[in-house]
């Protein structure tokens, strides 16, 4: 497999992970960032990573709300003991 093929495969896999909002896969792919030989590929990777950052930042309020629910439930369970 050529470096171009590896880069293209990484980009395609990243796009799919982004579409499916697969955070674990996205983080893994970011850690396994290949060397891009074309500027176009590099720019595409930068844009995809920016989209992933926006996805993660968008999840923060959602996760915070879920954590509050969990804490309230835990507090309730502790009070019933």
Protein described:
The chain is mostly helical and 81 residues long. It has one domain (3-79). It has three helices and no strands. It has helices spanning 3-19, 23-31, 39-79. Helix 1 runs antiparallel to helix 2 and helix 1 packs parallel to helix 3 (39-79). The longest helix has 41 residues, at 39-79. The chain is elongated, with a radius of gyration of 19 Å.
Task: Please tag this protein with its features.
81 residues, 83% helix, mainly alpha, single chain
Topology:
Elements: H1 3-19, H2 23-31, H3 39-79
Helix pairs in contact: 1-2, 1-3
Indicate how many domains the architecture comprises: 1
State the share of residues found in helices, binned by percent.
over 70%
Spans where pLDDT lies below 50 across 5 or more residues: none
The radius of gyration computed from the alpha-carbon positions, rounded to a whole number of angstroms, is 19 Å
Q: N-to-C terminal Cα separation, in Å?
A: 61 Å
SSE pattern:
HHH
| Sheet with most strands | none
- Strand tally is 0
| Total number of helices | 3
Q: How big a fraction of the residues is strand?
A: under 5%
Shape: elongated
Give a quick summary of the entry.
With 81 residues, this protein is mainly alpha-helical.
